[in-house]
Amino acid sequence: MLKVPEHQVAGHKAKKGLLGPLVDDSGKFYKPLQNNDARGSTELSFYTTLAVTPAIRRFFPDFYGTAVVPASDGSGPHPHLILEDLVSPYAKPSVMDVKIGSRTWNADDSEEYIAKCMKKDRETSSLPLGFRISGVKDSISSWEPSRTFLQKLSAEGVALLLRKFVSSFNAEDSDRDCDFAAEVFGSVLERLVELKAWFEVQTVYHFYSCSVLVVYEKEKGKAKPVVKLVDFAHVVPGNGVIDHNFLGGLCSFINFLKDILQPLHH
Amino acid sequence: MLKVPEHQVAGHKAKKGLLGPLVDDSGKFYKPLQNNDARGSTELSFYTTLAVTPAIRRFFPDFYGTAVVPASDGSGPHPHLILEDLVSPYAKPSVMDVKIGSRTWNADDSEEYIAKCMKKDRETSSLPLGFRISGVKDSISSWEPSRTFLQKLSAEGVALLLRKFVSSFNAEDSDRDCDFAAEVFGSVLERLVELKAWFEVQTVYHFYSCSVLVVYEKEKGKAKPVVKLVDFAHVVPGNGVIDHNFLGGLCSFINFLKDILQPLHH
Question: What are the structural domain ranges in chain A?
Fold first, then answer.
């Protein structure tokens, strides 16, 4: 009983003729293994060899192996990673995908891929802000801005968007109430500060084009968010050097959250 | 009584026919104001408008205004910044210049300048490590590796070079004694952790192509280093965003120092 995910905000989407992820009713997320390049095998080997402490393991989706299932594009059986469906516990999830790092490529990539990524990093907020919002959605109000709009936001635009993500009043042009800021971003901040401490010392992995995914239920008292890292198709060995690209972008994103939370404490 | 600095390890050097910095006998450093582009005025306005707390101000050289003095290249009177000569208190200084950041350019630079910087960032350790060693010198042993050699070092090469910088035994192929590691890098680390705390919150300046300069006297009991930021010709406004490029590189450099200090504590 595989179906197209209802709340996917970033990445390739399954459509007629397009290969994309699928979900089942038991909370599993089936991600197609790309077989046209190394990306699929990179992500598979990342999950199969991931060796971190239990506290850090919580930042990653659960992994249940691989399976050959009918592809979303109707092309027949195709190998998929079986992952935890992070939005499945939520009735009406609010979801945000934030791609971390001012640079989404690394030195070992092909010149063609580097040029493509560099162009996008410069056209979006990645270069100036150290991250870009790849997707966002509020299942209650059906608010789901286009990816192009999101990725190119200025610092002011990102701040407004983040405030809207944690507001209950979603009329386009009004002030944000930020009703959920303390509960949601307070908790996200705690998790990200923990993640930052790990990135300050870990030299095993460099995460290019990887995202922080935030999911929460926009309902008072139930809004504790989940914070996970997703997308490991471009993880490379750190070889004794910290991931300064991810760390810098993460610190920048943390600073945006702090800016929203700080006025609440006055 | 202006003369060519004896211990300059990076930047344009004054030579016959070349414009470079000069020093006097009173501890002042005269840096030519570039008049062929915006760099000189950028650095001048940085020093004249710098508004930070006294604790952070200590990371920057003292600034004494400008003066028109005879240029080092013999072309006659030329405007210079008058700065603190950071090595003047030292009899036989050991000096290291570390250019921080994986990227030495910003989005407002010309395409030509961006291409030039990007090429160099990729050819040197800037891209993989988040910093490159621009120059190093030990005035006792006259050890002064070439800049090209330094800038292209691998992670292992940088670690070895840093160990050599704090060793008293400087024979090229022997083990490093790291006799000065605890005294010098212990103190550098303290200062850089303080600097990092500032970079985690300051959104006023983005420092491209800026260096951390470390100077100390290789003599037991007198080896307390000075740690300063230098070169502000490419500082741009932060506009509410932290300098994630500098911060990431700084964290990477800090991690290299920690790796050298940690075994000493066992």
Answer: 22-84, 93-265
Choose the closest CB to B248 out of A122, A244, A255.
A244
Kindly list the residues from chain B whose CB atom is less than 8 angstroms away from the CB atom of residue A157.
Answer: none
Instruction: Please tell me the predicted confidence (pLDDT) of residue A30.
Output: 96
Interface of B with A in 172-231 (CB under 8 A): 200-201, 203
Report the distance separating Cα A140 and Cα B120, nearest Å: 49
Q: Contact at 8 Å (CB) between A80 and A63?
A: no
Residues of B in contact with A249 (CB under 8 A): 244, 248
- Give the pLDDT mean for B126-146: 94
ipTM of predicted assembly, 2 dp = 0.94
* Contact (CB<8Å) B255/A129: no
Q: Is there a contact between A32 and A21 (Cβ–Cβ < 8 Å)?
A: yes
Is the separation of the CB atoms in B95 and B122 below 8 Å?
A: no
Give the model confidence (pLDDT) of A4-31 as tens digits: 999 888 888 877 778 899 999 999 999 9
Q: Quick one: pLDDT at residue B174?
A: 60
CA B9 to chain centroid, in Å, comes to: 9
DSSP string, A98-160: EEE-S----TTS-HHHHHHHHHHHHHSSHHHHSEEEEEEEETTTTB---HHHHHT--HHHHHH
Residues of A in contact with B203 (CB under 8 A): 255
> A28-32 and A22-23 as β-strands: parallel, antiparallel, unpaired?
antiparallel
A68-101 pLDDT, tens per residue? 999 998 889 999 999 999 999 999 999 999 999 9
Nearest to A226 by CA among A45, A34, A93: A93
Is B255–A156 a contact, with Cβ atoms under 8 angstroms apart?
Answer: no
Q: What are the helix (H) ranges across A68-110?
A: none
pLDDT at A234 over 70: yes
Where is pLDDT greater, at B31 or A174? B31
| Structure confidence at residue B84 as a pLDDT band (50, 70, 90) | very high
Q: Which of B102, B200, B259 sits opposite A245 (nearest CB)?
A: B102
Mutate to test the interface with B, among A110, A200, A244 (most CBs of B within 10 A): A244
- Which of B244, B247, B251, B262 would best serve as a mutation to test chain A binding (most A beta carbons within 10 A)? B244
For domain B93-265, the CATH superfamily is Inositol polyphosphate kinase (3.30.470.160)
- Confidence grade of residue A265 (pLDDT, cut at 50, 70, 90): low
Residues of B in contact with A156 (CB under 8 A): 240
